[in-house]
Amino acid sequence: MTDFLLILISTVLVNNFVLVQFLGLCPFMGVSNKLETAMGMSLATTFVLTLSSVCSYLVYSTLLAPFGLEYLQTIAFILVIAVVVQFTEMVVHKTSPLLYKLLGIFLPLITTNCAVLGVALLNLKKQNGFLESIAYGFGAAVGFSMALVLFSAIRERIAVADVPTPFRGAAIGMVTAGLMSLAFMGFAGLVQF
Amino acid sequence: MGKVFAFHGGVHPPENKKQSSRTPIARAPLPPLLYLPLQQHIGLAANPVVEVGERVLKGQLIAEPVGRISASLHAPTSGVVRAIGPHPVPHASGLESDCITLETDGEDEWIEHRGLADYTRLKPAALIEHIRRCGIAGMGGAGFPTDVKLHLGEDHIVNTLIINAAECEPYITADDMLMRERAAEILSGIRIISHLLRPSHIMIGIEDNKPQAIHALQQVLTGCELNIDIRVVPTKYPSGGERQLIQLLTGLEVPSGHIPADIGIVCQNVGTAAAIHRAVHLGEPLISRIVTVTGDAVAQPQNFDALIGTPFADLLAAARLHQERLSRLLMGGPMMGVAVAHEQIPVIKTTNCILAASEQEMPLPPAEQPCIRCAMCEQVCPATLLPQQLYWFAKGREFDKARHHNLFDCIECGACAYVCPSHIPLVQYYRFAKSEIRTEEAEQRKADHARRRFEARQARLERERAEKEARRKARAEEAALAQQARRSSDGEEPKSGAAPAATAAPDLKQLKTAAAVARTKLKKARDGLKNAQEKKLDGIDALQATVTELEQKSQAAQRALEAAEQAEAASAGEKGVDLKQLKIDAAMARATVTKLERALANTEDEQGRRELEAELVAARNQSDTLQQRLREHSSA
Amino acid sequence: MATVLSAILILFCLAVVFGVILGYASVRFRVEGNPIVDQIDSLLPQTQCGQCGYPGCRPYAEAIANGEAINKCPPGGQSTVAALADLLGVEAVPLDAEHGEEPIKKVAFIHEEECIGCTKCIQACPVDAILGAPKQMHTVIVDECTGCDLCVDPCPVDCIEMIPIETSINTWKWPAPAEPLGLIATDRGRGAAQQEAH
Q: Where are the domains of chain B?
């Protein structure tokens, strides 16, 4: 039990995928202009991350490792991620066409989100079991969502604030992300994992 | 004296009430002209029932209410109606609105009027109708038609009646003086309201800075049979706001989007109660009210019993205004008042104060500085809103978010702007946001309406097309059957009446239409040609050929028309000229000249210009001829 | 060799399985029609004037859903562009001047002394805002007129005039408070100009 708790704290706070490990920055900067879009994106990414983390683990442990095909892991994982993302896209298109339109190109771009592939590969490195993989993927997703939602809330406020002209737009966004990163690095050492 | 609760926030601006409450209420001198706006209340503007030049008596109905939420208007004194039209009115925009201008004759002659003998015998609906006919509206500042409020007893259970005697805004002492001098009238009005609404408890909410008024009310209430209480509340702005007073006296909050009657409470101003007394017992409609004239720029600040429609200038003169000291003229108090520029603006049913401020008294506000997020505004907001958030949203034009933060619950009291250390005019932002939202909603409704009409029209056209198709098919079938029938029987019947009889004389109207149509076609072809030439598209030659052909057709049609017209004119000399026809012809000719002149101004290429100039000359000639004939025949 | 074959086989099986899953999903989650078009259409002002280049508001809405620029509607003005930008998550570009400036709201007015009762304007009006019949007087119902000015051209006697709507007390809007002077150097350019004006 404590194991799962530790994994969660580690992935959400200590080793936050976006702010500490600097993975998945593309949707982080691209979808964070509005809070609603950010929440939609974080839900989609959570779904993709958890599912692909589990599927990758299964594919590795049942198909690749027993036949000594570990070197195929990258291709196989990308295949899994692409299928999961495609599936998610269809579900989103059906249930919320507005969200589908809002997310636009960023929904299929989850495929190339290095955080997703990163989770799958890091899972292997840590030699997690099946349940730990689920926790790992889910925790990564929660961490990503939290960072994304926080960041977009800040960006919405910045949008109406009096920002000096050279800083307007992406520049002040980057500065803010950097400051958030600094803040999250304060969690370092909280959990030895 | 009874438990008093509290409301969140509030500020304590300096009261400045002593200046105008030292002397009793004075009768304002009769002004030479009265301006009576048709809209002095919430709801639809009243409709005038008098005409310019008509003499009216004091208290005579001069405008009747339109619809359920509206109020009537009566002449405040006898005189002659000089004008009914736009005039500056008390409104923040400074725009004009329709007013009845009354020239007073100095006689102050009352129309015949009588109070109701025993109002308790009347049916409630009849009593309320009487109050409506006397034009009573809320005199606390909003101007809601009182009769509508009194109807609330019918579909709501009213258990508490609150009489608003708080008068929380600085400088204003109108209600204070009214209570000191006419407490009996107020009590009588309360009795009438209580009779209609049947509350189980009546409370008068009054601030503790009015000891004399409290004393006067207590005296009048001794031995009163009603369950009526005076509740003295601590002086704080804005305890006189309806929802704030309700919270002070009952501890209940009126839910957002609901009216106090939904929680069993009705609120009325003391001035309205006194007016109801006059209407019911004396039969007097609402034609005057107490107005505080104060500020450093007047030498004798005091309260006046002024007629509705009195221009501000007259009251200011009566209070001895020093024009050179006047820096800002406010209608209302310093917190919620509106600056007005025009001194001919009249007193209306909701004007409680005229504040003539000097530069020292009310200096210009310093420039707005950035918000430092100190949240002082949130601490003082009586409606427990988040003024800072509303400010950010209004500034960033995020009106949806502002609405979700309950922007429309803001009572625009000004407490937040009063405490802001950066001198941000917060209430201006909220008013701006509210009016933007309202305009957007109105435009959205209009657009929806237009879309529905458009779709209905498309459906109608579709239907007509389908019907036409069906009819055409039916006719074709019939014709086929008929043809078959004819072929089977030896059909050599002469074609009866197949050829239409040749029209005796050429139909002038048809020719004219044909000429107009040919002209329009030519114009469109010319435009198309010009467009093609500019954009270097294909088929220019074909278009050129079409233009030439249409020119010929147009000229032919025009000539035929002229010939027919001349023939008509020739025979018209015997038959008598159709003046209307002549007018139409002249107008069309004029229109043609205008069109050609415009086209000439827009044409660039030489050939086009020459053609147009030739046509223009011909058109001008024709126009002149027709004008001449029109003049001859009109004068004949 | 065997390992290469088994690798290819594994990947092939994986691909087949995933293909089947996706195929099933694409049938199960098929989306009919395009509900986004309705939402776009509800934001347009419904004047059906054609200034955007499309024959009406619904065709333009469909075009926007397919990627058309959102700044082509002058009667909607900048506020419509902003609302569309909000809905679609694109940038709010300024109104395209090529299609006309944001006009002052106008309504049509028929000069009755010149009207000949030809019904051409009635046929042109997209919202049936003109009352009349052949050879009878025509008149514009002001409350229904959207100011699209499609009726002006067809009139053969040029008797229709577009009159701007005046602001009355009921339609007056509170103006936005004035921009505070910039305190930051790059913004001060605006502030300096204002101060010079004083």
A: 19-356, 365-470, 507-575, 577-636
